[in-house]
Amino acid sequence: MSITIYHNPACGTSRNTLAMIRQSGEEPEITEYLKTPPSRATLVDLIKRMGIRPRELLRQKGTPYAELDLGNPKWTDDQLIDFMLEHPILINRPIVVTPLGVKLCRPSEAVLDILPNPHIGSFTKEDAEVVPARKSAK
């Protein structure tokens, strides 16, 4: 089984998502995208496979989003991708790739939708929020 997480260890949502993947019995390939940003081709492919537009992947909080005026609709998809490649902190996280799909996992429990084994039992996030166990499909 091949699972990849585009991870930022400083992000609680990313850490919770990684813990949920591990609780499912998988050890993912971890790409710390701030240290090793994706190539343009990889980023474009991830966006396409998530079925979103580049603007939907932009992170605003704690980034140069406002100073770069990225909320302005004048920027094309290609230009927004250029900004994300130049400033990887603009890429929202975590992005998880599994054989069942690619998803921006915000909130972290969104990862359960694409895990081969989503029945991980209950999970307690770092902030003490409990994600209840998923019911098995009948």
SSE layout and pairing:
Elements: E1 4-7, H1 12-23, E2 29-32, H2 40-50, H3 54-57, H4 77-86, E3 95-98, E4 101-104, E5 123-124, E6 130-131
Biggest pleated-sheet summary: 4 strands, mixed
* Helix/sheet category: alpha+beta
Ranges where pLDDT stays below 50 over 5 or more residues in a row are none
Number of domains: 1
Indicate the overall shape.
globular
CATH superfamily: Glutaredoxin
The percent of residues in helical segments reads: 25-40%
Radius of gyration, in angstroms, nearest whole number:
15 Å
Q: Let me know the number of strands.
A: 6
Measured between the Cα atoms of the first and last residue, the distance is 24 Å
How much strand content do the residues show?
A: 5-15%
Count of helix runs: 4
Q: Quick one: CATH class? A: Alpha Beta
CATH architectural group: 3-Layer(aba) Sandwich
SSE pattern, N- to C-terminal: EHEHHHEEEE
CATH topology: Glutaredoxin
Task: Give the spatial strand order of the biggest sheet.
Answer: 2-1-3-4
Mean pLDDT: 95
Written overview of the protein:
- The chain has about 140 residues and is of the alpha+beta class.
- The protein has one domain (about 5-130): 3-Layer(aba) Sandwich (Glutaredoxin), CATH 3.40.30.10.
- Helices cover about 25% and strands about 15% of the residues.
- The chain is built from four helices and six strands, in the order E-H-E-H-H-H-E-E-E-E.
- Strands 2-1-3-4 form a four-stranded mixed beta sheet. It has a two-stranded antiparallel sheet with strand order 5-6.
- A hairpin with a 2-residue loop joins strand 3 and strand 4.
- The two termini are about 25 Å apart.
- The mean pLDDT is about 95.
